[in-house]
Structure formats: C-alpha cells, structure tokens
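worker-3 :: picked Orotate phosphoribosyltransferase
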Amino acid sequence: MGDHDDLRKFITDLAVVHGRVVLSSGIEADWYVDLRRVTLHHQAAPLVGRVMLDLTADWEYDAVGGLTLGADPIAFSMLHAAAPTDRPRDAFVVRKAGKAHGMQRRIEGPDVAGRRVLAVEDTSTTGSSVLTAVEALREAGAEVIGVAVIVDRGAGDAVRAAGLPYRAAYTLADLGLVA
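worker-3 :: tokens ->
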C-alpha cells in the first residue's frame, strides 16, 4: 500500500465516528469525520503531509495554511514533508478573529503579502471555514491559488463558485460513507 491507501485506512479506522451529530454548518448527520484524530497522530501526520503535497503537486505555491484549528496540523505536516525537497513550503495560521493585543495579526507565521498560498482544511461541508480563511488571506495581500481538503463533504461547488480551484484527497465514497 502507498501513502494514499495508508492514510485512508487511518481515516476509516480512527476518524470516522458513528452517531448523531450536528456539524459546524448546522447540518445533522449520522456520522462525523474527526480528522484531528488523524492529523495529530504520530504515524498518520507524516502521511497527511505527503498526500496533500502529492494532491497539489502541480500547483505553484510557497505557503500553506487555513483557519485554525482544522487547517493547522495539515499545514505543519505539509511544511515538514516539503522541507527536505526542492520545493519547501512555509506554513501560516489564520485566526478566526484579529488579535486585540501584541501585533494584532490575524494571520500568524511568515508574511503572506504578495505570496502565492494554498488554503487547506481537514474536512468541509459548506466551504464556509475555508472561504473565511481565503477572505482573510486576500485582505492580507496573498494570492490564493486554490483550496485543498483531506475529506470533501460537499464544499467543492461553493469553493469553485468563489472562483477557486478545489481538490480533495478523499470523497465520502472513497471512505465508504454516504452523505
């Protein structure tokens, strides 16, 4: 098995939780994909970085991140996976709101102004979280080249409607789940 198959197994074994839940979008579901159980796992996190870099290998960007908390471990995994290659990437964190103290930055990490960046998210149903990050990145002067998620729960149309390319490492069908 390769990285993609190995990561899918971690997702199905660790992250898919069955039971009635209300998603952040307000939609009710009979299962939840808790990808933090995978993105913060010692064996799975390196796979996350490699799979997401492979997914976006033909896109030109030099920094990756998104809205905290779902995007943070993805960006860090990609940063570490890319570090020894000829295409290293920086990572950044987009706060849900600007800080009221210190430097009052909404985007933490290396400056994104004038840079080509990739917005990431662990899983997305409506695209709301990742599009919030995209808006903040654009306000900070970044050129957002696309959006990539680990698991797509249906956000692709909304992201594409916002004028951005969209990719997912896995669909619900890939994981044996139905919407």
